[in-house]
Amino acid sequence: MKKPEILSPAGDFECLESAVKFGADAVFLAGKQFGMRTASANFDNEQLKKACDYAHKNDVKIHLTCNTLPREYELDTLPGFLSFAQSAGVDAFIIADVGVMELAKKYAPEVKLHVSTQAGVTNHLTATALYNMGASRVVLARELSFEEITELRAKTPKELEIETFVHGAMCVSFSGRCLISSYMTGRDANRGDCAQPCRWKYHLFEENREGQFFPVEETDKGTFLYNSRDLCMIEHIPELVKAGITSFKIEGRAKSSYYTAVTTNAYRHAVDEYFKNPENFKLPEWIKEETEKISHREYNTGFYFGNEPGQVTDNGGYIRKYDVVAFCEKGGKTAGITQRNKFYKGDILDILPPGGIPFNTKCLKLENENGEEVESAPHAMEKLKLTADKEIPAGSVLRVKRQEKI
Fold first, then answer.
1. CB atoms within 10 A of CB 182
2. 397 with 361, same domain?
């Protein structure tokens, strides 16, 4: 068995750094055009070159999303976009449109072609046809089960790589293609501008009672008809590996560097632990617990085991059990930190070190930039010195568990 790639998301350079520091083999990100996440900061030409240089110095690959479905008026700018990406050092394009594939072969022949999940690849005939067209990898439709993936893998050329999503947000569409946002807001989900109306509350009204709205509800909070759960496959590493999947993809280019750090670290350790002893593998409990320390919706396993219930019908919110309170720039028992959320002297801090296993330490002392001792860190982005009872490695994330409301 070949160890699968951990492929992590990056919406900006801070997220890219988190992915690299916490164990990603590859990172997928977008330029300022043709990417499916316009809400993210993304990377301009200068930043893209810098991102490729930084990643390659750390033996990490860059996959550039070029997965929108471009309209006629956009095509003139595509050749320049593709050729610059090649010169910047991009390792692969993620493409959904066969016309864009043809342009990429012409204007960026050194860059590998990965076919996006947007293409809806659900069978070996399509996967093989795309391979014959020049694709080195296909990102399978999210609707496939383990049984279908295993059969597809067995019937496709062994050189063709298989990528699937293993973690993150899902939607009610087929392979990410949805028109609800376009109809309701004019924002095209297939061009990276989804307003996520699937997360909204919905009501109905009776035609003879204008202005009287009736909730479609299962609880007093209303029903969220389309609101999908989040995918989490952290407990199913053996099945993912045995299905022949080449790359484990973590969704989340619109999410924070903290999310990238935690998910990357969890899947990195899970895969590494599995390959130490595949026959007797048991997922360490702390790895599963890490997936609960990020903001997320209720988890499920998508379509991997068939049609598991996919919608959350009683709320549209996130589960948040921990707050990120700081990032450590200078390590030690007296550490240099940058505050992100308020915390206090005496708090028990949950530390996630780069590439490491989380541990707890107590905040014994806090000093501001003037060297004055303070009782709390109330100012976002403030630089502080923190004295703890254990050494905090540079690059660590500092967290505090939220108090449960009584």
1. 17
2. yes
Q: What is the DSSP string of 212-242?
A: -EEE--SSTT---TT-BPEEE-GGGHHHHHH
- Read off the pLDDT of residues 132-185 as tens digits, 9 standing for 90 and up: 999 999 999 988 999 999 999 999 999 999 999 999 987 776 666 666 666 667
In this structure, which long-range contacts are made by residues 42-46, counting pairs with CB atoms below 8 Å and at least 24 apart in sequence?
A: 42/11, 42/12, 43/12, 43/13, 45/84, 45/88
Is 154 a domain residue?
yes
Token pair 């919905």 in the structure block, residue: 202
pLDDT score of 52:
98
Residue 357's pLDDT is what? 96
Claim to verify: residue 239 and residue 357 sit in the same structural domain: no
Taking alpha carbons only, the member of 292, 39, 299 closest to residue 167 is 299
Closest CA to 191 of 9, 27, 11, 30: 30
Q: How many residues does the chain have?
A: 406
Q: How many CB atoms lie within 10 A of CB 212?
A: 9
Instruction: Give the contacts of 72 (CB within 8 A, at least 6 positions apart).
Output: none
* Claim to verify: residue 273 and residue 387 sit in the same structural domain: no
User: pTM of the predicted model, to two decimals?
Assistant: 0.87
313 part of a folded domain: no
